[in-house]
Write a structure and sequence with these properties.
It is built from 12 helices and 14 strands. It has about 375 residues and is α/β, with parallel strands linked by helices. It folds into 2 domains: about 5-190 and about 350-365, Rossmann fold (3-Layer(aba) Sandwich), CATH 3.40.50; about 190-340, Glycogen Phosphorylase B (Rossmann fold), CATH 3.40.50.2000. Strands 3-4-2-1-5-6-7-8 form an 8-stranded mixed β-sheet, sandwiched between helices. Helix 7 (about 220-225) packs across helix 11 (about 330-340). It is globular and about 60 Å long. Residues about 1-10 have low confidence and may be disordered.
Length: about 375
């Protein structure tokens, strides 16, 4: 629904300064792949002088309704998010109906804010779906199928669909073939400067590491089960999410409380030190449109074992990053962990500065 901007907006475009509204289910200090992409792009574009706002939700009600973070104005609205999903918010939609911008960038097909993004007035609409192709549980999968009737409208209205990987693009083209021509790939990145000079933590045993949201589909339970075959390893699990209680019960039932540590809320530098400390990083997720934490572990030179499902398969090079088929047996997984060794990683990983530059090119198309 592109619009004719008032004169002041046209002048801003002519001198190169854009007003950009990022619409996403959650934002910093919440953590996750969507949150990271939105934050890293937003703060870099704000530093370049663009007017960047983030419109998001806060189902907890514990965060400020408005604040400025790294030059980015953030608006948070109450939402319903059963099981940390969906993020349905009519207040967010009402707010967007009062807003106008040069570019609206919606994030996340699997939650409602992206569907509401078209409520504002804009010149260009960009969409990052982070599309998984199905829900993470049978119930969510059934809801996803029903949602497609409404969700297809986002693809129809958008000017550009940005996918994180070839795998995600293949799913979008499979399920929304009429809009495949709008797709382009810009993978998430890392801040390469922050990986210099990391000091590992002291350790006596070998360390397995997982960092990310704690959801059943992420596969952390397979790492816990593999410890039976890895008596010289400890497992560090960094993150929060609805599956944490189940993982703790699994650890207790297996008598592994002394070999598994749960951490959350770490400072960024502390998380990076755990990447440098780990002997192996694990990501055994069934659904991923990219895998930022895998890229970060590889940037440190830490060997990785990933599921050869979804976009994670694109990291596998049979060297620093090894792949396993799901479902994986604990004994087979333990064997792959032991075979993971430090050696150069052969595939390109972008820096966030380059990601932001590529996204800005997409924003400017047609302006």
């Amino acid at each position: 629904m592109g619009i004719e901007h008032p004169r002041e907006k046209r002048v801003l475009r002519m001198v190169g300064r854009l007003k950009i509204i990022q619409v996403c289910p959650r934002y910093k200090p919440q953590i996750g792949g969507v949150e990271t992409v939105a934050e890293e792009i937003s703060r870099r574009l704000a530093a370049q002088g663009h007017e960047v706002e983030v419109v998001t939700t806060d189902p907890t009600g514990a965060l400020p309704a408005t604040e400025t973070i790294d030059g980015v104005k953030v608006y948070r609205f109450p939402s319903r998010a059963p099981g940390d999903a969906y993020y349905f918010s009519l207040p967010l939609r009402r707010f967007l109906k009062t807003q106008s911008c040069d570019v609206v960038h919606a994030h996340g097909y699997h939650a409602f804010p992206a569907l509401f993004a078209e409520a504002c007035e804009y010149y260009r609409f960009v969409f990052n779906p982070y599309y998984h192709g199905r829900g993470h549980t049978p119930f969510r999968n059934a809801l996803l199928k029903a949602y497609r009737i409404a969700g297809v409208r986002v693809f129809r209205e958008t000017d550009a669909v940005v996918c994180n990987s070839e795998f995600e693009k293949s799913l979008v083209c499979r399920d929304f073939p009429a809009y495949c021509g709008k797709t382009r790939i810009i993978s998430p990145g890392i801040d390469k400067k922050e990986f210099a000079g990391l000091a590992p933590y002291p350790k006596d045993d070998k360390i397995l590491l997982y960092a990310g949201r704690l959801e059943e589909y992420k596969g952390v339970q397979h790492a816990v089960a593999a410890l039976k075959y890895l008596p010289d390893y400890h497992l560090i699990i960094i993150g929060r999410g609805p599956y944490k209680a189940a993982l703790k019960r699994q650890v207790e039932a297996a008598g592994l409380a002394g070999r598994v540590k749960f951490l959350e809320g770490l400072m960024r530098r502390d998380l990076l030190r755990w990447y440098a400390t780990a002997d192996t990083f694990l990501m055994l997720s069934s659904f991923e449109s990219f895998g930022i934490t895998v890229a970060e572990a590889l940037a440190v030179g830490t060997p990785c074992v990933v599921a050869k499902s979804s976009s994670l398969a694109e990291f596998v090079d049979n060297g620093l990053c090894r792949g396993v088929d799901l479902p994986v047996s604990p004994e087979r997984l333990a064997g792959e962990i032991r075979m993971a060794v430090r050696m150069p990683y052969t595939k390109e990983i972008l820096d966030w500065d380059e990601v932001a530059a590529r996204m800005l090119e997409v924003y400017r198309e047609g302006l």
